[in-house]
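Narrative of accomplishments. A recurring question from our advisory board has been how the design workflow behaves on a single, concrete structure rather than in aggregate. To address it, we present the structure tokens for one chain from the evaluation set, followed by the sequence designed for it. No filtering or post-editing was applied between the two.
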């Protein structure tokens, strides 16, 4: 469905304004679909992002600063997210042996197993993009990269 119909706004200042609104709207749409998938695992998309970063680092730990740098949502409070994941048993926090001011975060076996379960949903996640073919997805990726570049 066209953006104008979705948000009931027939006119935009120009195509750039429409593009900005469309990106925000699409981000929200995608986030809602993703959160619906994660609901049964009782995690948020930001917590999932942290777990994926930690899986990429595994078996090495990550600092809170490294997590902040790599997160998709730079405005998220990485410390708070890590603490929530720790209370659920998905990550461990330890004082760094070489720098006592630093806290190392590492994904647990339980966290790795959760990601394996969520990975089984990849086909469902890919289906969010069913209206695009592979070439169109590549083009859109390139255009978004160009816009930010």
């Amino acid at each position: 469905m066209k953006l104008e119909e979705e948000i009931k706004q027939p006119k935009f200042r120009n195509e750039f304004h429409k593009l900005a609104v469309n990106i925000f709207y699409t981000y929200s749409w995608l986030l809602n679909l993703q959160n619906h998938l994660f609901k049964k695992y009782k995690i948020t998309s930001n917590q999932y992002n942290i777990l994926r970063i930690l899986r990429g680092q595994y078996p090495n730990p990550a600092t809170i600063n490294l997590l902040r740098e790599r997160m998709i949502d730079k405005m998220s409070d990485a410390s708070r997210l890590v603490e929530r994941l720790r209370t659920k048993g998905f990550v461990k926090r330890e004082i760094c042996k070489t720098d006592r001011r630093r806290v190392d975060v590492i994904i647990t076996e339980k966290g790795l197993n959760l990601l394996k379960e969520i990975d089984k949903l990849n086909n469902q996640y890919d289906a969010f993009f069913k209206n695009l073919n592979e070439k169109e997805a590549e083009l859109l990726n390139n255009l978004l990269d160009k816009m930010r570049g």
